[in-house]
Amino acid sequence: VDKVDMTNGNLILDTGTGYATLLKGEQIPGEIHEVGDRIKVFISEVKSGETRGPLVTLSRVHPDFVKRLFELEVPEIADGTIVIKGVAREAGARTKVAVYSTDPNVEAVGSCIGKNSMRINNILAELSGEKVDVIKYCEDTCEYVKEALSPARVLDVYLEDERTCRVTVAPEQLSLAIGKEGQNAQLVARLTGCKIDIKA
Q1: CB 57, CB 42: distance < 8 Å
Q2: Distance separating alpha carbons of residues 189 and 86, to the nearest angstrom
């Protein structure tokens, strides 16, 4: 971070080969950066500029930012042994990452968490307190929805039609399954592509 614009909250970043702007709206809500901080950013778009070379859009809120952090931290993802099937993100609050392993001897979720949670902790440190749920991807829609609703424990998932799931949880699990302001359920819907109806 080379400069913090106090009027609009934008950051001017020194990339080593030039300077780039990280707009306030592309920063994780609630995070504060100071001059001299080293941060990771995701290049979400590159447009050809009229006069001064390409215009680069940087982001820390894009879902692929989390995906790239996993690729950097988990060698099994970088080499293709573990595949990220989907990312649903509410930047600054919670992200759900669905993973599966192409090798029966490699456990996808455990590899992403790492020994003593080291890998996931390195990712969380970059995300300013955002929670990350690593979920096992399943071809079976009901099983996938059940996995995705974690940390809530699910009693039953019933597929009403191709894209609508009725979920039953114990009464004490209902608020956890739905999440604060419906956030958990919304992320599950985005991740699985299903409309989710949760009942106790």
Answers
A1: no
A2: 12
Q: Residue 39: which of 63, 68, 66, 13 has the closest Cα?
A: 13
Q: Determine the Cα–Cα distance for residues 166 and 156; give it in Å rounded to an integer.
A: 8
CA distances (Å), 35 to each of 4, 6, 12, 39, 43, in order? 7, 12, 9, 11, 21
Q: Which DSSP string do the residues of 44-79 spell out, in sequence order? A: EEEE--SSSS-EEEEESSSHHHHHHHHHHH-HHHHT
Span 74-106, pLDDT tens digits: 999 999 999 999 999 999 999 999 999 999 999
3-state percent helix, strand, coil for the chain, nearest multiple of 5: 30, 30, 35
57-94: string of b/e by CB count within 10 Å (b at 16+)? Answer: bbbbbbbebbbbbbeebbebbeeebbebbbbbbbbbbb
pLDDT tens-digit profile of 128-169?
A: 889 999 999 999 999 999 999 988 999 999 999 889 999 999
CB atoms within 10 A of CB 155: 12
